[in-house]
Amino acid sequence: MKRNELAGGIFVTLLFAVILATPFAGGSSYHLSIGISLLQYAVMATAWALFSGPTRYVSLATGSFFGIGAYTVAVLGDFLPWPAVLCVALLIGLALALLVGLATLRLSGVYFVIFSFGLSEMIRQLVSWYEVNITKTSARYIFLDITQQQIYWQLAALLALVLAVGWWIGRSRLGTALRLIGEDEVVAAHVGIDTTRVKLALFAISSAFMSVTGAIMAPRWTYIDPSIAFNANISFQVLIMALFGGASRLFGPIAGVIPLVLMIEYLSTNFPNHFSILIGAIFMIIVYFIPDGILGTISARRPRASQPPLAAKAPRTGAAS
Amino acid sequence: MSALLEVNGLRKAFGGHVAVDGLTFVLWPGEIVGLLGPNGSGKTTAINMISGSLLPDKGSIRIHGQEICGKKPHRIAAMGIARTFQLVRVASGMTAVDNVVAALAFVGPRLTGSAAEVRAVALLSQLGLGERLHTIAGDLTYIDQKRLELARALALDPQVLLLDEWLAGLNPAELLEGIALIQSLRTSGIAVLMVEHVMDAVRALCDRCVVMAAGKLIADGHTDAVLSRPDVRRAYLGEDDEEKVDA
User: Fold this and answer.
1) Given its phi and psi angles, is residue B45 left (phi above 0), alpha (psi -120 to 50 degrees) or beta?
2) How far apart are CA B138 and CA B135, in angstroms?
3) Measured between beta carbons, which residues in chain A are less than 8 angstroms from residue B119?
4) pTM of this prediction?
């Protein structure tokens, strides 16, 4: 435990040292743009894993919450001061997550996955319908005086916040409840855990981070329409990054984000025509060969210090009736 | 003295099949009661309704006079009813001690941190798992997983403990240990309702037995008296078998 905490401390110190140094290192705007992508996915994959990691409810709704945040900026960016826009994005993300969560968190396993995927599509269609029929626009322009550097710093702050929240949850009763729900939801309910409320709370916290990320990222586009904002690829990429790194550990998703964002960047620049095929193949390889993620695979190869040797196990007797 | 648990006219049907039909019995503080009956007689359905896993169609369940029918499992756990499962359920990826720590955090004294750990270690040691505190629950032997399940139930500091075939699948030596463990709960004042097929254990432990057949209550009384009743034997063994036994 102590060794893990030390490793975590060193990791987070190094991570933020690099994050803080990057804009001052005299890199080009291209480097800053990669930094932004890394931070964006680091926040979202960490937020995704806050809920989906311990509960094992695989959510494909990331894109919809990200899109909600981005669209909030497109609609309100000109009228409200920037901090207020971010707050509204956060509140809309929270409200939508609570609404959707109440309806769906009773679903389990594959039904939840399908619903969360359908949600993105539904929201995209609803926003498209609203824009075309009510506001008579098919797209919006975002002209805000926010620089790349400012986006970078906001995302860095958001990453610090999501890690702090994750650290706090891991040590709270909420974290204990989540872990037990992930292990066995029936048992969790029978030891006094209000499983619906716990799942709902975490789904909402996780989704709010995604909405705020969407809002912070929105000024990067000057033009936004529903298919840009509610991009299903975001949901899949966040999921695969979190799984690749290891969704059951706080820093796991970041370990997945760094190589995959760089790889996606490389493939999309160098193989623009074959990008989808390549990334699909890579995703399959990851799921097949590293189901526990990078950190999970590393720690599985280390003997568990806290566990007595397996030889101490008595032979299994009897069987369930 | 008032009854701890009162079950009155409990009914549950699955489609056209009535699994439990008008079940009525009471549980007094500190007693161990066997809930008996052949397979499919509705015992586990009754346990599931009392613990909140299933919603009864009709009837009432009261603990200390307070209605719990229709409440969610976590609310019922908070009101003092703990259970184990017919097929043992432990959080197999967590250590034994973490399994119990998780159960200490939400009801009763709501212990966390080192206080929870101290209590979990005490409970596990009491149930003979003192040497396996940090073993991953999935790596425990079958009886140890059962012990862990019991420790987790006791962590809730319950007034009523529902054991669903907790002694099933144990070898003779483990069975003796298991019986001694349940016997030791008697001094703590917990009322135990145990679904059980192991008749030696029922005779050794139960003050009273409630017998079900095809969803209905057919007997409720002192263990020896109930087990010697012809209708109970018929329900368990079937007409032909009973004749063979008598012959």
Assistant:
1) alpha
2) 8
3) none
4) 0.84
Query: Which residue in the set B110, B136, B174 is minimally distant from A317, CB to CB?
Result: B174
List C-alpha distances in Å: A177 to A56, A292, B155.
Answer: 13, 21, 15
Q: How far apart are CA B159 and CA B30, in angstroms?
A: 9
Nearest to A321 among B105, B134, B169 (CB): B169
CA-to-CA dists, residue A226 to A40, A70, A74, A123, A141, angstroms: 19, 10, 11, 9, 12
CA A72 → CA A78, A128, A137, B38, B140, distances in Å? 11, 14, 15, 62, 52
Residue A190 at interface with chain B, using a CB cutoff of 8 Å: yes
pLDDT in tens, A138-186: 778 888 888 888 999 999 999 999 999 999 998 889 999 999 998 999 9
Question: Does the distance separating the beta carbons of A321 and B152 come in below 8 Å?
Answer: no
Nearest to A75 by CA among A130, A119, A155, A141: A141
On average, the pLDDT of chain A sits at 84
Chosen for mutation from A176, A191, A249 (greatest number of chain B CBs closer than 10 Å) is A191
CA–CA separation, B155 vs B99, rounded Å?
10
- What is the predicted ipTM? 0.89
C-alpha pair distances (Å), B68 with each of A64, A274, B72, B75, B78: 40, 61, 9, 8, 11
> Which residues of chain A are within 8 Å of residue B144 when distances are taken between CB atoms?
314
Is the CB of A179 less than 8 angstroms away from the CB of B91?
A: yes
Q: Predicted confidence band at B246 (pLDDT cuts at 50, 70, 90)? A: very low
Considering only the C-alpha atoms of chain A, give the largest distance between any 2 of them, rounded to a whole number of Å: 72
Q: What is the dihedral angle through the alpha carbons of B202, B208, B211, B217, rounded to the nearest 10 degrees?
A: -170
Confidence of residue B181 (pLDDT cuts 50, 70, 90): confident
Task: Give yes or no for residue A61 having a pLDDT over 60.
Answer: yes
Residues 6+ away with beta carbon under 8 Å from A190: B51, B52, B53, B73, B74, B77, B82, B83
Tokens representing residue A213 in the block? 């990320």
Q: Do B170 and A317 touch (CB under 8 A)?
A: yes
